[in-house]
Amino acid sequence: MADYRLKNGIIVSFGKTPQSGDIGVSGERLLTIGKSSAVGKSAGRPAGGRVGNRAGSTGSAAQIDLKGNSFVYPSLINTHDHLQGNYLPAVSPKPGTFYLTWQPWDTDLKASATFAERSKLTRRELYRLSAYKCIFSGVTTVNDHFPHELNAKILPTLPIRAIQGYGLAHEAVSYDLKWGEGIQAEHKRAVKNNWPFITHLSEGFDGESMQSVDLLEKLGVLDSHCLLVHCIGFSDGDIKKVARAGASVSWCAGSNMLMFNVTARIRKMLKAGVNVTIGTDSSASGPVNFLAELHYVRELYRKLYGEELPPKTIFKMITLNAARAFKMQDSIGTLEAGKLADALVLKGRKDDPYENLVSASMKDIELLILAGKPLYGELRFLDLFGGKLPKAYTRIQVGKRPMFVIGDPAALYREVRRRVGFKKALDYLPFEVEQ
Hints:
Low-confidence stretches: 37-58
Structural class: alpha/beta
Helix content: 25-40%
Distance between the termini: 29 Å
């Protein structure tokens, strides 16, 4: 990928005051982050806000002028997804009931029409659908909570960054799925490699689930490497222990409420200083994608506590906090020179940059970049490719906007419909293949 610069955007990165500026990209890295500078007159200004590929002080680097109309954020990080399970519709408990643990939901899932349809697709196809679920909601980094023996060969083939360095236990209960080599062995490997150790924890209200924090403490593995998913049964004491250990929590509010009608005690966790992040779980149990999850957590927090969850707090959860949970804060999570060039460009619909992000929808994405490589964007960004779309990309129509995207999600969508035998709608794919 050639070097390039995005000019005159509103740069938003946690710990810094949002301001108009430029970001320069060299290879996979952010080269410069700074205040806007004038573009040389000799470069010209073609229609659509583009600045010619050969622009004065930046030599041959392409430059795109955002004209102060777009916000530039670190791309988003989803700390918990089931990439094999993002099929629709969601599977719910019977009306008037809720689950005690995850097990009866799993039983209902496997007896559902959703699962029957999903089973007509290959695992690789399901993973690619999930990659596009991420892309079309501004996510470039995600954890797939399945064991390495299922996903190790697939994750490197995806167009997003599905982290591969993690220790894993399914859950700290006797009836877990026995993924990995056991809690202590997986945690030891995570510590040795400076990876996260990831496990569902307290996903339910039976006796074992309610004692799971104590079990991790007893085993000597409750520390800053832990990324604990769900945590809906935590007591005040559990929250204090997790905060003291420096562990992280992945809050999956939408899935929790559908399955259990309760979620993590998130306000107490935040006040205790827990490193809270946000996950989606699968679309089969939660909101359709990551942006929908952000909308949901705001509404839920308002309903539960009678107050707003500040948009800036949510922004930190899905960028810096999530990078810390993955032990990747030195390379992603903020826009800083030297870090990987992961960036999300959104239309400026709101004056407040944090409100603009957490209220955004799929139609607001203008450009998504992973390690310097554009994954998805409006056609005005084709200058980043020298003006011509590479063979690895295709065009789609999102609403009235022609867009480019890595790979061929339209062909994948057609194949899904061919396999299931009807015009299946997957709401995280914001286009119609016939267009």
